[in-house]
Each structure stands twice: as structure tokens, then as C-alpha cells.
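Ticket reopened. Same input as before:
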Amino acid sequence: MSNTPISRFEPPRLAELPKDVAERIAKVQEKSGFVPNVFLALARRPDEFRAFFAYHDALMEKPGGLTKAEREMIVVATSGLNHCHYCVVAHGAILRIRAKNPLIADQVAINPRKADLTPREHAMLDFAVKVAERSHEIDDADYAALWDRGFTDDEAWDIAAIAAMFAMSNRLANAFSIRPNDEFHMMGREPRP
Amino acid sequence: MSNTPISRFEPPRLAELPKDVAERIAKVQEKSGFVPNVFLALARRPDEFRAFFAYHDALMEKPGGLTKAEREMIVVATSGLNHCHYCVVAHGAILRIRAKNPLIADQVAINPRKADLTPREHAMLDFAVKVAERSHEIDDADYAALWDRGFTDDEAWDIAAIAAMFAMSNRLANAFSIRPNDEFHMMGREPRP
Amino acid sequence: MSNTPISRFEPPRLAELPKDVAERIAKVQEKSGFVPNVFLALARRPDEFRAFFAYHDALMEKPGGLTKAEREMIVVATSGLNHCHYCVVAHGAILRIRAKNPLIADQVAINPRKADLTPREHAMLDFAVKVAERSHEIDDADYAALWDRGFTDDEAWDIAAIAAMFAMSNRLANAFSIRPNDEFHMMGREPRP
Amino acid sequence: MSNTPISRFEPPRLAELPKDVAERIAKVQEKSGFVPNVFLALARRPDEFRAFFAYHDALMEKPGGLTKAEREMIVVATSGLNHCHYCVVAHGAILRIRAKNPLIADQVAINPRKADLTPREHAMLDFAVKVAERSHEIDDADYAALWDRGFTDDEAWDIAAIAAMFAMSNRLANAFSIRPNDEFHMMGREPRP
Amino acid sequence: MSNTPISRFEPPRLAELPKDVAERIAKVQEKSGFVPNVFLALARRPDEFRAFFAYHDALMEKPGGLTKAEREMIVVATSGLNHCHYCVVAHGAILRIRAKNPLIADQVAINPRKADLTPREHAMLDFAVKVAERSHEIDDADYAALWDRGFTDDEAWDIAAIAAMFAMSNRLANAFSIRPNDEFHMMGREPRP
Amino acid sequence: MSNTPISRFEPPRLAELPKDVAERIAKVQEKSGFVPNVFLALARRPDEFRAFFAYHDALMEKPGGLTKAEREMIVVATSGLNHCHYCVVAHGAILRIRAKNPLIADQVAINPRKADLTPREHAMLDFAVKVAERSHEIDDADYAALWDRGFTDDEAWDIAAIAAMFAMSNRLANAFSIRPNDEFHMMGREPRP
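Engineering reply: fixed in the latest deploy. New output:
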């Protein structure tokens, strides 16, 4: 497998990257133990790399609001609908870890409706899926369904924005054939103690 | 019309914005003569605002490669398919100005296939539309069709990335009901001299 | 632009047209200041021309019932869904004039759900869109939704018949590549006094 | 069955119809042995009735060009896709008679691709189906495919126009729930001698 | 017509069939007066033949529960949606006979929503159609709609299982181009006494 | 997790099962180390159970022709498109084991086009996917594409039949909410030595 390219576009050499981009990559490598391929693939364009990860961090890492597991559920559910190999595998791994549940990512990626979710989580994913697939039809009733499950206005924004950002991310990974690192497939699959 | 809200989420007061966000808004106002509503709507979240416009500028304003008119064609064609009121109207105005063609935006938004385009432009939009609608099916043949029309690898990246970024942007504008400024509807419609 | 053909099929010479067809064309020219291309394109077949415009006039010009602006809204909304360049541009112009609203046509063509419409107008367009897209699923509940907004049985007939007639008209204009006259793009765009 | 209404809208009493409408109905009754329900249903609106049948006759009854069986094939194939109960049953009967083939209507209505058709007939129906379903994508290649099978420009117009007219007709019959006369189900089913 | 092959795959010679397969075929021939082509087509693979008809008989012939006419309605409605020529024609004939109604099969195949059905039958077909088209979205509400019309749990199973079995059967008949026997087209069309 | 029901329909008690059904279940338990839930769920109906597994074994276990890994690829690819939680998880495990490849099941389930497959395997899955999604459009060209990759007529039958059988199986598992055993998620994920 080691000879399969990580993307249709050749990634830059690490030594040639701008310092801030190289540091961001070093940081994720330290945290994960490997460099997720999307970092290498997008580093070919440093300005886009910076904007992409700034947007990602603003939505996925900010304190408060949705839990980190909830945010990853949104990513996995919408990436499954968009048939995005990279995002389902990589964010599926993160979801298993965040949710401390080795089964949840496969369930959510294949069919969120049949997943082991709370009614609150189902409402969140119904909204996210509509943003992914038919955003022009979103109306008051969709927001009301979130409020009924206790979501705030700002959490509604977060759900929509995460689904929108991965609409972009899925299309980039699909168009560029970005390949998920083999490591992701096994992460977080050990049964919970 | 002046009483219609510009977004489902109340925009922040200008006086309360971080300095860099306020400056970016002042700059676009100076250039356009008004503040496009998407700036106000997204300023509610300064970090996301910064990342969004950094990504936008990296793709839409960088020198070289696709012409600015070509980039706007991609935006208008894919936003039409996504039924995004804001992006079709606002970027339709920019397209008319960039292309110096008062008819082109309506044509591209309604049906790119019947628009007054060159074969090169048709190839570009065929690829962009596939990224917007079926990115998981993109394969070698899609890239080869671009090369046949003289596009480089880096231009192929740009087409995909612009279509992907507006997949996000369309979903934000649709989910938040961001309303285009009235001014956009008339811009660039005067016949070419 | 003046060299672009108005249709895939060469239009007849005016001098060769039957008298009643020529008179109908003269009449619309007098009223509009130019001959809308659909008249020239369809005049190639005088019998079909007569039937087409007789049907058009019976639905669009008859007194009473729906306002003329409402009828044009139906045309623009369904023609947008059918990606009909001719009908969106030409009837968009008429809608702006009839509704005395320079923004309404772009809104309705791109996404009727986000347009500045009354609940009555939304109900009308929901019904029209269902006739355009899934007429075999129309049932009692669809009619009841119209009655709830004060529409009569005969107005329900009109909504369905207008949507149906433009299902035909959109397909003719698309299959024949009928091009809207440049003049339509600018008509009715001046702000209301 | 005799108590089932022929349409959601009550048909007019024959005695109250304008003379020309009544005569058209008498003529079809004489020819068919019964009054097809679409005549009664549409007679509620004499002007629309006249235009509808003028259009119908201009396309379906004119001499030369496509055979009458070919024209009915177009109607049955596109009406099947539109799930139009009236048109499939009524025009299926006419197709069986015109084509002197008791099996052809069921084949064409269910799946034209598997019907006992010549390559020329398949090319004709491929074009008609594209007009019915995706007319905005029709391009030079679609016309070239017809020419390859010996169709003239005027026959291409006829195929498109018949498919377009029944796009309208199917939507009227569906929206109004027009019921086919029981007689149609059995017509033309006797094996060919 | 007699020279048209009954399937893309050549059927086996009857003399070469295993005894139990030959007996099953003899039995259906005795009952129907002819051998339905699906028996010959599938006999090419005796093990699959045995399993297929065992499954068929378990669902379609077992005593109790849904009436035989109800079961055939499910087959005809879902086979119509799947454009399966064989199943619509063959099971349409059986439905006409079982329901003692010469019109019902055409109605159900073209558009179940407009067919002469009871509310109970409509509920049954709504469920079956959802199994055929969007089974991953089936939820408690779909079962509740059946219970409201008096269906038992076991009858709900039967509806789902019949729709599922013909999802298979339609795909086999379509992929193998299995042709319905001419005899089916006329069966059960005589008016009820 | 142990309290989550394995199906919407209560499974029978093992002690009450017919002897042959109980033996089949004992056999799979011995082989796998646990009883896959589909066996328990379908055992509620012994006749359907027998036919279902007879069909399954005839297609999936017979000697010769497609390799067992190839057969499982067909199951996983089409079950992914049908959003069948049970079949993707259970057959994904079997595919990993048969193909001795811990990554292949996730790849094929999410997007067969981007999976690490040979051209022969891609041709096989293209055909299978068309059977699953648009079997009525299958024609000579689809068979020719298989022959070009060295498949025999009988292997073409197998591909179609497996895709068809899982069209049924996916709908049963979805409609009945059959839950995959937790064990499947981890099976075959250990890297190849």
C-alpha cells in the first residue's frame, strides 16, 4: 500500500514549506503519531492550507457549544452521503475516539437513521443532512426542530457551518483523490472498558 | 425592502467588531460603494469570517491562472444548481462586470449548456458542475477533458477548489437565508459600448 | 451578439407567413417594441403557432382570477426548475413589470422558497412546482392547501394549467435552443418610484 | 366503476357547450364509439379546449413525416415516465391499433429499452425521453443521433414537440385526476391475424 | 414474435433438467396452460431455481394474512417503479384474475396513487413502495401507518418481504432481459360479469 | 449495547425452531464463533429462512467462477449504495477476511470508484452497481464491458444475481432494522503479515 499516491496532485516536499505550515504539520504529527494525508495534500497551496485549517479549527476546536463527538458525527454523516473516502475514514476514527464508541462511526456513515443515537443527536443530524443535500429548502420548521431538542441559535449555526465546511472538504478530497492514512482504519476500534 | 433582514441570524453591530474585521468591511465598502451582506452576516463569528475570506481571496483574487471572469463563471454556474439566491445575484453582478457582458450571468445561472461560451469555458464548467454535484465520480477522464482544452494541472485544482468553496458558501447562505443587497441586481447590466 | 441564431431551426421569412400569423407578430412588436424570438421560432409551423398562442392567451390573458403578476410568477418559478433560458429571461422581464418589483424575478427563478412572497403566493408556487415536478403525486391535500389560502377551484385549475403549459413551452425552447432577445434582460429593472 | 368521477373538476353538461366544442366531441364519439374523458374534462374551459385539440391535431394528425404509430409511441413512452394513467391507457390503445401490435403499448410504457423496436424507433424514443426528462441538456449530439437513423430536421421537431405537448397533457391529466374510459383497456388487444 | 428469445441467456433443454425442476415446470404448465418464461430462464441454474421458487411460494402462496390479490398488487406496484417488463405483464395478469378486476393492473402499474383502491390498500402500497425505493428510511411511523389500517405485525413483514423479493426478481428479469409470454397480456381482461 | 434488540421483529426462541433451521444456525455459530443476527431474525419464518439461505449458498458458496472475495465486493458495494447497516458491516468483515485486506471493505462501501481495485474488479462493480440502481437500463454494452475484462457469461449471471439477491437482502435488513453483531466491526482488521 505504501506506493499508492496520497493524492492526484503531488504533495510538496516538507523542506520547502513555509515555516508556519511546517509547524502546523509537525504539531498534528506529534499529536496523532503520523501526518494525516490531507495536511500534505493541501500544503501544495499554503494560502489555501492556512485558510482551510483556520476554518476547520474555528468550527471543530472552539470551546463550548456542541461536544466534539457531536461535531464529528456531523462530519461522518454528511461525508458518508457525499461518498468521501478520506473524510469518512479519518473523521470516523476521530468520532470513535471522541464518542468512546467503537461502533458509532460505521453506523453513522452507512445510515444515520439506524444508528444508536439519542433523539437530540438524530435532530442534529437531520438538520446537517438537509444542509448537505437540500440547503435551499431549509426553513423555519428546520430551526424549530432543533430548538425543540434544546439546541441554541449558535449551535444551529455550528451544525450548518460544519455541514457546509465538509461539503467543501468532501469535494476537495474527492476531486483530488486524497487517500486516508491506513492508520485511521483501526483507531478507536478497541471495545470500551 | 429596507426592512427585510439580511440574514436569519442578527448581524453584529459594526462598532463591536474586531479591528481587522471592521477594516476588511471598510475596504469592500470603499471598493463597492456598499457592504455586501455576506460580510455583515458572517462577521457574527470573527474567526470564521477571517478564514472564509482568506480562503475566498486565495482562490478568487490570486494572480495568474484562470481569469477573474472564468472564476466568477464557476461560482455562478454552481450556485445556480444549488439554488443559492445570494451567490447567484452577488456573483452574477461581478461576473457581468468582469466579463464585460451584461447577459452572461443570467445565461450561466439558468443553464450553462446554452450560454454563449467558448469550448474552453464549457469544459471548465462541465468539470466544476461535476465537482458540485457528483465529486465522488470524478476520474482521469475528467482531468483529461480539461487538459484537452489547454488547462494546466494548477488550473484544474483552481476549478475544483472554487466549486468546492462555493459548495460551502451556497450552503451557508441558504441555511442562514442571507439576502443579496438590492444593488447587485442592476450592476453590470448596461450594454457594452 | 446579433449574429447568434435565435433558434436551432431557421425561422421563416416574415413575408412568407400566413396573414394571421404575421398580424399576431406585428401586434406583439407594436406592444413590446420588438418581436420576442419565440414568435419567430414557432412561426415555422403556423398551425402549431396558432394553437400555442391561443393556449397561452387563454391562460395568461383572460380576465379575472389570478393576477397577471401571479401568473408570471408561476411561469418563472417552474421555468427556473426546468433550466429554460428563454422562459426565465423573457417571463422574468414581464414579471418584474407586472409586479412592479425589479427584484422578484431573480428571486423566484433561483429559489421561490427564499423569495419576498406572501403566504398566499408561496402556496400557489408550491402547487405549481409540484405540477411541474411530480404531478402524479398531486392529491386532495395539495388542493386543500390552496383552499386554505383562499384560492377557488377555478384558480387551482389555472395554477395547474399554467405550470403544465410551461412544462411544454420550456421543453420546446430547450430542445430548439430558442434564445431570449437581449432586450428582456434589462426590462423592468428600474427601481420602483 | 360507473360511479367514479372522470375528473376532480366536474365536467360541463353537453347541452351547455359552445357549438364547435360540442361538434368536436360528437365527431370523436362517432369515430371511437364513446367520448374519451379528456374531451369532457377539458370542455369545462372552451378556449383551452380549442387550443389543446388544435395543438394535438397539428402534431398528431398532420399528413407526412412520422407515422401515426411512431407518434403514439412517443406519447406512450413519455407518459409512462410521467406516471400518467390517462395517457398511458388511452394512447396505449391507439398505439396498439396504429401499430397493429397488441403487445407494443405495454412494452413501451413499462420500459422502452426492452421493447420490440427497430433501431430507428429506439433513437426516436431516446430523443423523446430526453425532451421529457432533461430537455435543458439536449445538444448537437442528440440531433446527430436522429440524423444517423434517417430522421429529417422536421421530424426531429415533431418528436420534440410531441414529447413537449404530452409533458403538458400528462400534468393536466395528473393534476385533474382525469380517468381513462374503461373501453381503452381492451382496445387493440386482439392478436393480429 | 415467436422468434424473439425469452432471455439473454439461453434456457436449458427441458429434457436435461433435474427431475424436481422439470416437475415444478410441468405443474405450472398444467395450471396456466403454458410455461411462464421466468421458469425456463431460471432453470438454467437449478439450485437458484429451487431457492427462488421456494421463496416465492413461501410469500405468495402461504395461507392466511394478506389476500392473494393484495400480494399481487404489491408486486405490480413495485415492479412498475422498477420498469420490469416481465413482472408487470405477468403479475399484472395474475392481479387482474385474483382481484377479478380487468382495470386494476394497469392502474397500479402506472400510478398506484390514482388507482381504484381502498385506504387500506393505499397504506399497504405506500409501505411497499418505500421498501422498494428508500428502505433505509423506514421507521416507526411507517409501521404505525399500517397498524392504523388494521394490518398486523406479520402482515407488515409480508408486505416488506414481498416488496424485497421483487426488488430481486425485477433486477434478475431486467438484467437477463426475460420476456413475458404473449399470453399474459390478455389474461383477465374480460369484463366482470 | 447488549440490550439493543437485534431486529424490529422479535426473534424466535432457539428451542422452538425446526430441526434443520436450528442445525443451520448451529453450523454458522461453530464456524464464526457467534450467530450472525440475520439468522435469528429470519428464523421467525422457517420457510423463508430456508429459501433465503439456499439462495445465498447457491450464489455465494458454489465452487468455481468468481472468487469469494469478488462476490463479497459485490455485496459490500451494492449494500453501501442501499445504506444497509447490517450488510455493510457483516459482509465488510467477510470481505476483509476473504481478500486478506483490512482496508478494502471501507473503501468499497464508501466509494467503489476510489477503491484499490484492479480494472477487472472495477468492471465487475460497475455492472453490479447498475443492476442495483438502474437494472432496466442494462443492455449489450454492459455485457460487452464484462467480456472485455475476461468475464464469462456465467460469471456475468453471477454478478447480476448477487447484486439482485442483496437488493432483496438490504431491503429486508433495512425494513426489519436488523442489527449487525458487534463482533463484525473488528473482524479482519489486523494488518496482513
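Residues 153-176 of chain E form the longest helix (24 residues). Chain E has ten helices and no strands. Please confirm and we'll close it.
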